[in-house]
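Why predict the complex rather than its parts? Because the way molecules touch one another can change local conformation, and only a joint prediction can capture that. The input here totals 1100 residues.
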Amino acid sequence: MLKCTINGKQYAVPEGASIIEAFKLAGESLAHYCWHPALSVAGVCRMCMVSIEGNPRLQIACNTMVTEGMVISNQSHAVKDSVKWVLDFHLINHPLDCPICDQAGECGLQDQYMMFGKYTPEMAMPKQRKRKVVSLGDRVVLDSERCILCSRCVRFTEEITKTHELGIFHRGDRSEIGTFNDRPLNNNYSLNTVDICPVGALTSKKFRFRQRVWFLKEKKSICPGCCTGCNIKVSYNSKGVFRVKPDCNPDVNGYWMCDEGRDLCEKTQSVDRLLKGMSKYGEEKWQEGPALKFAKQACDDLSALPSSSVALVLTAQHTCEEFEALIQSFKSKFKSKKVYYWVNRPEDFHKFDGLLLRGDRNPNTVGLLQILEREGFKSTWSELLSDLSSGATQGVIVAAPEFPSFYPDFSEKLYELSRAKVLTCLTSRPIKDRELLPGQRWLIPLKSFLEKEGTFINYRGVQQKLGTPLELVPDAMTLSDFARILSGDWLERQVEPLGSQNVINEFMKTPMRGL
Amino acid sequence: MEVKLLSEHYHHDDFREISGYQKRGGYEALKMALKKKPQEIIDEVKNSGLRGRGGAGFPTGIKWGFLPKNGEPRYLLCNADEGEPGTFKDRVILERAPHQLIEGMIISAFAIGSHKSYIYIRGEYVKSRKILEKAIKEAYAQGFLGENILGSGFKHDLDVYSGAGAYICGEETALISSLEGKKGQPTLKPPFPAIEGYLQKPTIINNVESLASVTLISRIGSQAYRKYGTEKSPGTKLFSVSGNVCKPGTYEVPLGYPLMDLINVECGGLRTGRSLKAVIPGGSSAPVLTAEEAQKAFLTYESMAELKTMLGSGAVIVIDDSNCMVDLLHVLTHFYHHESCGQCTPCREGTGWLNKLCGTLMSGQGRLQDIELMDQVARNMMGRTICALSDAAAGPVISFVSKFRSEFEFFVREGRSKIKGGPHAQMHH
Amino acid sequence: MFRLSKKGLEFVQSEMKRYETKRSAIIPALYCAQNENDGWISQDVIAHLSEVMELPASQIHEVFEFYTMFNKRPVGKNHVQVCCNISCAMNGGRELADHILKEFSVNENEVTSDGKLSVSRVECLGSCGTAPMMQVNDDYYENLTPERAVEILKDL
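Output of the joint prediction:
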């Protein structure tokens, strides 16, 4: 560790730390635009100037290493004057269109000019005009006039995705970021460029003009899109969930997440969800009813069968707590060892895109397998199928995947399972009629990952908690809720209050503008 | 008085060919050098006090000393990206004495232990490049380049690389970026090129004239070299003189020579009826000297520093009283605006701002406070960027505005130049 | 669609091996392609080079846009560049440019109707001692007067 003094206070920082890292560790604020902890040092915005005792010239904090006993300040007159001037340089050609800019409220440039009271730019002459509303592929829009050429996005496509779509073209104050010939920036990590853009130059097509950031609350969660389990921050308000950003976790996802993962939050919207309990018998029409009532009736139907003829089928898109509760409840109720699971397309299962996205599209495969192993459940899928044919298995409870789109054989499997006399499908999605054979069928609405608490264990064994739940589909339940109903202790022990924030989910109801 | 050490034979047309070069003692210095220990050559160059002739004036031998001592592969790059307005002396060397440069490069490469070097030449110098390429071919044919040079066991390859039109590539880290096939943008220091340069390998970058001078120093020895010049500015140097003199051109004089003698003796003075107004002594980025200051100036690094300007690349631009200083400054602000690479905010935005301010003055729309603002903007561009282009752009502005303020104020008040026959409205760019 | 000639392709491939890194061949490749594309570089050219060199188009485009010697629009058979930087400006470089433009009735950076000539004002070409001067394609013409310059251009 190296001792150093930052703004008059003593700190110890690790060897090899740059001054900007030391400021971060010390919790001292230091304006900066181009530096990003996960990218190479560009040293171009020139905002992070500090004075170092014994050095007559101001230095940039991002490219200067801390040495033993270094005395550093960003509070001196010289530093403040420098920051003010560099800010002026940033602003002279900036459109200052904060009122119509999505970044407003979380913009590094805005923060600084508010701090310095620079409401009018110093330059009286016409500003440099650049391209506006440039579509960079399916998800990202560029406004070059707002761009401060920090090069973070360019370094991201060079160093992180290594896809090299972005560049800075031309030179001097004619420089503009862009793609060659406006080719689309359609890599699966494109929205990270929007996240790291310190100003409103790169914005998300989906988020654009939909909400002001100061009307949004933030909830932490875990992306359910694959077994990596990227940490995420979900922005929402009473109108719905509006965007998802990665939350830095050096052990899991670093600073990034994939675009596909962000899309999953959209799929929690009510239009894609099973909102109520459903039931039908034989060729009858579906009947809709309260989830709790239907769940109880489903349990009664299952209990009427010979107890050893009931099977439980699990998928790895639920929390450890849910698996635990449901398995225990199933065991005590049916004295059956018929517990099965299935995963998405096995041929893709071990794929990896080299960055974050893994072929195992379940957030909790490790969690599920641990419990099954501990319980000693070893039944195979073919046993299940032959038992269904022979009538040895007559009732099935399926905890369907939250995102059946990752299971190409979902319909096929469900169809096979519906050979059971009584099928209770716990699902967050509506099930199509043709996916089931006739019989007694119950569909019980499940909560999405945003609506529940619990733990996912990622591919390398990192246990991660889903954050505080939101409420999106009021009637939906968790597997644990169903487990309690199955045990018959629902009435005795009410579900604990979830601290839900009563959100009505209208995500994506407003049509997208422009582009 | 001109002292032609380096340029002794430049007037012989066949000096650019290997036969003509060897006839006049060419490659003898290399033969001697290859028999020495590399450190002896480094010491000789150190002792000569040779200072980098590209503009910064950093001692060449000391620069070489920054290389790591281990045997890691290292590159020698010759900076032939002569782009500083007013400078054309490297072109003279490239076209009249390519072998002197090549010989100097082989000696230098031997001294620093480099097996590969490049001459990075500005793209516009097509003719120079052709001459150079022919000379390199000749040197290979004679065994001065390639494997086992003159039986010494030393191996060295030399190639030429053309830039494509960017002033900034004269900055050494920008030159490296350009040679690596990227935009010619300077990179952060540290790391310095001597530690991590071309392809992240230790790299030495020397100017054409510096490397040609290595040939000279190796031939005559540091003592003889030091007979000329001053303690702090030893030797002779090529000066490119342009502007309003009767005989513009490249002249070799000992450092320490009075600036006015160069103008009046070598260059034949100003045109009849004209008087001296100003001199830019070291290329366009060197702060301008008034006529009065020019009288006191000597052609040394230290004399120029005392006068708060630079000897730079030795590009002396002589300005007579027919010129409007607002107009000339606008030419320069336009240039730096055109050439800023655009990485660092103060330079990218500042060069444009300065050019707009100067243009506003030229258009007659300027306000008195704009003159003050130009000075302020320029001062705040200094010392805040990766490379020196921002400072280079600021230097002329500050010096022009402070030393010729009345001309700027006149333009604001009258909407035209103070100079008779000078510009009325914006006519350039 | 632009494609390099066989000779051009061979040149680019040899340049890719000539330097320590393939990327260093971008500048020589752009020069070569510019020569084969009537003196300027279109998006097509970059797309083609990107394929041939197996380098990201953005990298080639960055280089293309950065350097002034790569022409962004069509030029005449004789592309005239008149230096207007300080020493030339003091010796009539700007007036020289104006004169040529007027004499050939063409706007700066545009091509004469017969396709023979285009004129640009440029920054210092390192010919300050022989100002004013112009570069026509690869060649320097120095110590010019407006009349002499026009004469030279008419004789080309």
